[in-house]
Design goal:
- This protein is α+β, with helices and mostly antiparallel strands.
- β3 and β4 form a beta hairpin.
- The strands form two sheets. Strands 2-4-3 form a three-stranded antiparallel sheet. The protein has a two-stranded antiparallel ribbon with strand order 1-5.
- The protein is built from two helices and five strands.
Length: about 80
């Protein structure tokens, strides 16, 4: 989930970005290693989904990666 707690704690939806292991790198895709897999967070494919669709948590991003995700989103949407 990339939505802030103030949002997903009070709504039935959450904003998510998928992680893929076979995608091509791009400036708006963040390299990450999560649960033993290398992949990319696809910020070009963010979406809002109903939280009941969230079956299991794949892992948690470290603070450095989360900061990079938020910084990149700011750059993408500021243009």
């Amino acid at each position: 989930m990339i939505s802030p707690p103030e949002m997903h704690d009070n709504l039935r939806t959450a904003i998510v970005a998928p992680m893929a292991t076979g995608s091509h790198p791009a400036p708006f895709r963040i390299a990450v290693r999560l649960v033993g897999k290398d992949g990319l967070i696809l910020l070009d494919q963010i979406r809002a989904i109903d939280k009941i669709r969230l079956v299991k948590r794949a892992g948690t991003l470290n603070l450095e990666t989360l900061s990079l995700v938020l910084e990149t989103l700011g750059e993408v949407f500021a243009k």
